[in-house]
Design a protein that fits this description.
Its EC number is 1.3.1.87. The protein is an alpha/beta fold. It has seven helices and seven strands; from the N terminus they run E-H-E-H-E-H-E-H-E-H-E-H-H-E. Helix 3 runs parallel beside helix 4 and helix 4 runs parallel beside helix 5.
Length: about 260
Amino acid sequence: MGQVHYDFAGETAIVTGGSSGIGRAIALAFGDAEATVIVADKQEEPKDPDNDVPTHEAIEESGGRAEFVETDVADPEQVRSVIEAAREYGGVDVMVNNAGVYIGGSFTDYDSKDLDTGYEVNIRGMFVGTQAAASDMIDRDAEGAIVNTASISSNLAQHGQVAYDTTKGALRMLTRGAALELASEGIRVNATAPGQIATEFTENGTERTQKRAGDGEFLKPIPMGRAGFPEDVADATLYLASDAAGYTTGELLSVDGGWQIA
């Protein structure tokens, strides 16, 4: 099959949650595509056990340009500060709202604090990130792209994760609503919907899920016959941010190996 090469030279991409997992893969992919990458995360060191070099340093070691900005997306002011950091490089051209939290548990056992945490990160954090990035683009009279990391949970319910499903369902409508309002400004807003990807939010989650992938546990419900990996989501994200998707906005692109159609 043909090879795809994206060119984001001269552009600045912000990736929240870019230190580990899916976010790290996205940030590295933008670095390979010659974008200036701002890695926004709560911690600089990656959680992935197989990676000991911070994402921005890995990009720089490969000849790219990157910066780490300590960011808790649950704090709106910190999100806005990341946009300010991008202005040092000319302003944000691509905003990837990727940082998120997983909230699992029985529906009847959830505490209201669980919902608050999910809302602050998965919804408000992405709302403010989308809003702040769009405002910067409009102020500069610049077209741009915003890509949110949603989930297959944006479309369907799964056992033991009502709170998580609720936030990801809301993220789908945030994406569509923002796309509708920002289209006239030349700003596209889309989202990826990862399925069972071999990474998790916990510090030891990646090792565990990669073992599950190696054991074939992820293969049973996936028509394409393999586990998903962060790089799969990164490829979809770069596509949605690129001119190749220049007539696409308000879409939720599933990256699940066909899991939802099985």
